[in-house]
């Protein structure tokens, strides 16, 4: 049974930094891709960064590219999102998401195309609030 737990959110001023963590259990990064999504009230869920250490690819959305960095610690089964130069529009609940198969891993981690699948695993989310 795959479990994900996101943490590290909080309140930060514009221009500041936060590092989010996602602890996984029952999952290794050879199993499939993992990534970060966010959702603000009244807005659609947005996929912002995905990674597959197995194939050596990662993806960033235009909204975060150059400011955020995704990484994994494979020995600890952890995934991180280092967020720098935060902006008020980054305010959202941030979720980690994993898929335990490799069928679309290239599309996800290279092309940024994460198709919807009810079998994906989700963390509980952590709130990031960026004040101006």
Provide a descriptive summary of the structure in words.
The chain is built from one helix and eleven strands, in the order βββββββββαββ. The chain has 132 residues and is mostly beta strands. Strands 2, 4, 5, 6, 9, 10 and 11 form a seven-stranded mixed β-sheet that branches. The longest helix is centred in the C-terminal third of the chain and has 5 residues, at 105-109. The mean pLDDT is 97.
Show the helix and strand layout:
Elements: E1 3-7, E2 11-13, E3 18-25, E4 34-39, E5 46-52, E6 57-60, E7 68-73, E8 78-83, E9 92-98, H1 105-109, E10 121-122, E11 126-131
Parallel strand pairs: 2-11
Antiparallel strand pairs: 1-3, 3-8, 4-5, 4-9, 5-6, 7-8, 9-10, 9-11
How much is the radius of gyration in Å? 14 Å
Structural class: mainly beta
Q: What is the CA-CA span between the terminal residues? A: 41 Å
Summed over residues and divided by their number, the pLDDT gives a mean of 97
Shape: globular
Tell me the fraction of residues in β-strands, as a range.
over 45%
Number of helices: 1
Low-confidence regions:
none
Element string (H = helix, E = strand): EEEEEEEEEHEE
């Amino acid at each position: 049974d795959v479990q994900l737990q996101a943490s590290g959110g909080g309140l930060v001023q514009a221009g500041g930094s936060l590092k989010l963590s996602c602890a996984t259990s029952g999952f290794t990064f050879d199993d499939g891709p993992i990534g970060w999504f966010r959702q603000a009230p009244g807005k659609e869920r947005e996929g912002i960064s995905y990674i597959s250490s197995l194939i050596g690819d990662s993806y960033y959305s235009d909204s975060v590219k150059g400011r955020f960095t995704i990484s994994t610690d494979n020995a600890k089964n952890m995934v991180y999102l280092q967020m720098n130069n935060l902006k008020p529009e980054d305010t959202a609940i941030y979720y980690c998401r994993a898929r335990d198969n490799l069928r679309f891993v290239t599309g996800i981690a290279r092309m940024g195309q994460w198709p919807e699948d009810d079998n994906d695993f989700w963390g509980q989310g952590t709130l990031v609030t960026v004040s101006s």
